[in-house]
Amino acid sequence: MEDAITLMDVDDDTKGKNVVVESTPDTKATPWVEKYRPHSLADVAAHRDIVDTIDRLTNENKLPHLLLYGPPGTGKTSTILAVARKLYGSQMSNMVLELNASDERGIDIVRQQIQDFSSTRSLTFGVKLPIKLVLLDEADAMTKDAQFALRRVIEKYTKSTRFALICNHVNKIIPALQSRCTRFRFAPLDAVHVRERLKHVIQAERLDVTEDGITALVKLSNGDMRKTLNILQSTHMAYEHLTEEAIYLCTGNPLPKDVEQISYWLLNESFSTSFKRISDMKTRKGLAVVDIIREVTMFVFKISMPPNIRILLINDLADIEYRLTFGCNDKLQLGSLISTFARARAALVAAAK
Fold first, then answer.
1. Phi and psi (nearest 5°) for 208?
2. For residue 5, how many other CB atoms are within 10 A of its CB?
3. Is 290 within 8 Å of 326 (Cβ atoms)?
4. Residues 300/314, Cβ–Cβ less than 8 Å
5. pLDDT per residue as tens, the chain (353 positions)
6. Distance spanning both ends of the chain, measured CA to CA
7. 3-state secondary structure of 284
8. Mind listing the domains of the chain with CATH numbers?
9. DSSP 8-state assignment for residue 69
10. Structural contact between residues 101 and 139, judged by C-beta atoms closer than 8 angstroms
């Protein structure tokens, strides 16, 4: 690929802020998302096609600049850190610069830290690839000026440095950067992979989790492994026996049976009765209206109704959820929810005639 590089100047004032340092495995105080983060490419739970492709490129010393994108908790950062461990081993702290662009998003970070790191020459004792690696997490948070500056740095230092950009929204990365990287999309994890990894953690931590509890964790995660482990750990702190109810109570999400009950009231009861009963359940169980609306929206997809009425109902529910995100009054929006179903119910009756 190129001649081996021989020397590297390491700044002493980094204070461990931007350089990847292998953490010592800790015990009870360690968040499980870090404790059970994959340490090798073989440990990555899903996206085997992507992982195998990157693994093959590293074995052949053909690693390109990478752009890994997709929803949170799908293994983007874990994959590239596993690649770095494989490439550099004990030299990882000297050969890898890790930055989080959501904290350091301006043009100065590109002109100073990234350019300084890329321009210095590196020790190559015991590493498989004689080039350095810059990991830029949350790259979609970078300003446009910073991204254009990064493009020039990538062009200038391609012979000595590889860049790995990680982001959630690829459309926020300028085309000039996208075209210089090999792109890999990390989709939400399949329920099978989430369940498999979840059972591994449960066994390792010797937790008492029921089967319906595992199903609830998988459902609430929506393919986000980080979210799954955070819910599992927080529920374990509150309950010894982890059931479906305990998990839903800990997260504040309405239970499936509660969603069915609320949907029944919305479809069958009068405005005043529905408002009173839903308000009572909301207060008693500490539910948020926005969570009720999200779950009811999912329930709407399951019930039988004409497509045009379903579309109108879902659009109205989306409008209510949107208003709630801007801090609109909960009681008013709960009233809007009930009114929306009253209109849908009237439309269903009219369609039946």
1. -100, 95
2. 17
3. no
4. yes
5. 444 433 333 344 443 444 444 444 445 668 999 999 888 888 887 898 999 999 999 888 889 999 999 999 999 999 999 999 988 888 888 889 888 866 666 677 777 788 888 877 665 555 556 789 999 999 998 888 889 989 998 999 888 899 999 999 999 999 999 999 999 999 999 999 999 999 999 999 999 999 999 999 999 999 999 999 999 999 999 999 999 999 998 888 899 999 999 999 998 999 999 999 999 999 988 889 999 999 999 888 888 888 888 899 999 999 999 998 888 889 999 999 999 999 988 888 887 77
6. 74
7. helix
8. 12-185 (3.40.50.300), 191-251 (1.10.8.60), 256-352 (1.20.272.10)
9. E
10. yes
Give the CA diameter of the chain.
83
How many Cα atoms within 13 Å fall on the side-chain side of residue 13? 1
Give the number of residues written for the chain: 353
Continuous segment of H or E residues that includes residue 161: strand 161-167
Tokens 């008492």 correspond to 208
Beta pairing partners, 96: 133
Q: Quick one: tokens of 224?
A: 């986000």
Q: What is the DSSP string of 75-138?
A: SHHHHHHHHHHHHHGGGHHHHEEEEETTTS-SHHHIIIIIHHHHHS----TT-SSSSEEEEEET
The amino acid present at 300, given as its one-letter code, is V
Can you tell me the distance from the alpha carbon of 220 to that of 234, in angstroms, rounded to the nearest whole number? 14
Amino acid 110 reads: V
Say whether 305 sits in a helix, a strand or coil. coil
Identity at 353, one-letter amino acid code: K
Q: What is the pTM (predicted TM-score) of this model?
A: 0.78
Alpha helices in 96-243 (DSSP H): 107-109, 115-119, 144-156, 175-178, 191-205, 211-221, 225-238
- Give the other-Cβ count within 10 Å of 320's Cβ: 22
